[in-house]
Design goal:
By secondary structure, the protein is mainly alpha-helical. The protein has 14 helices and five strands. Helix 8 crosses helix 9. Bound molecules: tryptophan (TRP).
Length: about 325
Amino acid sequence: MPQKDVVLTGDRPSGPLHLGHYVGSLRNRVALQGRYNCFVMVADVQALAANFDNPQRIRTHVREVCKDYLAVGIDPTKTTIFVQSRVSALFELATYYMNLVSVARLERNPTIKEELQHKSFAENVTAGFLTHPVSQAADITAFKARYVPVGEDQLPLIEVSNEIVRKFNRVYNTDVLKEAEAVLDKVQRLVGIDGKTKASKSLQNAIFLSDSVDVIKQKIQSMYTDPGHIKVTDPGKIEGNAVFAYLDAFYEDPDGLENLKTLYKKGGLGDSALKTLLNETIQTLLGPIRERRQSITDDTVDDVLEAGSIHASEIASRTLAEVRSAIGLWHP
Ligand code: TRP
């Protein structure tokens, strides 16, 4: 039987996962498992870069993120779920890759630049934060991933990873490392409930997969629409309207949605009716996820992560051995 291609992706456990993660990547992962050899990584070391003085926060969220995975249907019998810090081969790989990328190239990275705007150390960026793309190249190449399901904001990181792969193979005259391709969902970026930039836990504008019925309802009530749309009969704007952005991402009847948009633009559809519809849509999606999440014990999560990390370490160590030998490091 031909070997299945590898799919790898990960999330930083700096908070619970939200609907932006769901449309950007989680639902793709569920769709891909079984057909591919899938790995999902809880990137605690990467998360530590922006939280090095608060490791407790990261440790707590490792379990929570894993619960989110299991709740949305990532199946540990089909997907290896593991913790980054438990796979030490990744950090040795990253060390070798550091030589293959310039500081200027890292400083120019759009993903890093954008993230820096939201971080407190803007002027004093640490080496750990700046080198994310290198550590991410280690994550991707350790498993010889062919596909990486991510949000579009991660594309520049995958580009750096592929540059490192090409340079490594060229400099050491080998083909041990493989280039990877991003897999994007049809919805590439979900706006926050404030209608501004992308949904993000640090901007406190996201609906979490683990939010209660009431919290979801209240967040949808507060969502940004069209400030000029005051009376039901006023014509309204779709562009920049967060409620429509969410309906675009989650409402399952595209023709029905087109009719609603036409009516809204003309005047005659109120924001509260629209929010009721969105609330029903999101509650239907998240209800079963929340229920499944509540039935998952901490012990189950710990077992899944332990078994997954052992398996991931074996694979990554094999690649590391190939990398050391390709470089030609001392060997007795
Ligand atoms: N950078 C990703 C995030 O922001 C997490 C991540 C770490 C990742 N390593 C990866 C994603 C490798 C894909 C592949 O959540």
